[in-house]
Amino acid sequence: MRSDVDRESEVMRWTYALVPVVAGADKFANLITDWGKYLSPAARRALPVSPRTFMRAVGVIEIAAGSLLFSRKTAPLGAYVVGGWLGAIAANLIANRSFDVAVRDIVMGIGAFALAQRLRKAARERREHDEVPASVSTRSAAEFAGAYT
Fold first, then answer.
1. pTM of the model
2. Of 95, 30, 96, the residue nearest 58 (C-alpha)
3. What distance in Å separates the CA atoms of residue 79 and residue 65, rounded to the nearest whole number?
């Protein structure tokens, strides 16, 4: 059963890694969409740089956040960062009255937070398993039986 959960967590980890990396890279190319159109008017007015420059900075952050998920060691942190980032994007989308896309990002953010919790739990279980004394976990059946004869 544990292997099924681990496999599902791996699929989620890779999904939450790849999507931000691809979306972040596209902030430089605008092949998927014109990302600047998602900036709220208030955000546009507040920017000290052009929307295009800002979206490129956003792309760098997304690539970095997604990249944290590629490593099992940093994946829980990465999942929290991606979840928080999706929440910030959703807030901007709500300010832009793009409610349909904001709802999608909120749901994905919740999924990222759930993944972070799952990854932390799995890491804790692995550490606890590794702490079992070798004499208990690796004792052969013959040694065990010999002890009682």
1. 0.78
2. 30
3. 8
Identify whether the C-beta of residue 113 lies closer than 8 Å to the C-beta of residue 83. yes
pLDDT of residue 1: 45
Tokens 């300010």 sit at which residue?
95
122/69 Cα distance (integer angstroms): 15
> What amino acid is encoded at 107 in this protein?
V
- The stretch 125-142 carries a mean pLDDT of 64
Which residue ranges make up each domain of the chain? 2-130
